[in-house]
């Protein structure tokens, strides 16, 4: 049997479902490495050792394959983040959100790189920004309840949610390449900043430049 015959036999043993999964994994790797525009159907087919029509048969083209890859990554990350927001006490929720995002980055780095890249214009939905917006909405709901119990302005919960989610997301993006310290240490420090900041919130904060003269900075401008 020639090597070509062997390859054909090997390919014949792969079911349609297996082939589709193979193409998704290959596309995921190439999209993460090179981005959407620099990835071609030819290279995807070559790595899978199939003809281009096989890729078109499964996905209709590069855009279809990309959409499937992004949808799977979004579902995976969204499930990890949202499940962490619906369990446990407030501080543990913050810890689990940070750990969920860092764990996703650790386990699916290629997927995270794909979500972070610019997507084709046709892919209006399923972006990383839409995931962050979903996280903001959920965090805002949690904070609104906490603000209400403390007598704070609940309309500002979304502002604080944007800041908290943005801080975690930015730190997580940095950690994608840094990978030090460990995700547990990163999560602990993020929560330290978030939680202690939330614990000592002032009901009506003012810019330091507007404080009455004579009030030291260490007091934060707050009255006893």
UniProtKB/TrEMBL annotation:
Q: What Gene Ontology molecular-function terms does this entry list?
A: DNA-binding transcription factor activity; transcription cis-regulatory region binding
UniProt-listed Gene3D superfamilies: Tetracycline Repressor, domain 2
Which segments constitute the Tetracyclin repressor-like MT0489/Rv0472c C-terminal domain?
89-202
Q: Which UniProt keywords apply?
A: DNA-binding, Transcription, Transcription regulation
One GO biological process from the UniProt record?
negative regulation of DNA-templated transcription
Q: Which SUPFAM superfamilies match?
A: Homeodomain-like, Tetracyclin repressor-like, C-terminal domain
Tagged with keyword Transferase: no
Residues annotated as domain HTH tetR-type: 24-67
Q: What is this protein called?
A: TetR family transcriptional regulator
Species of the source: Nocardia macrotermitis
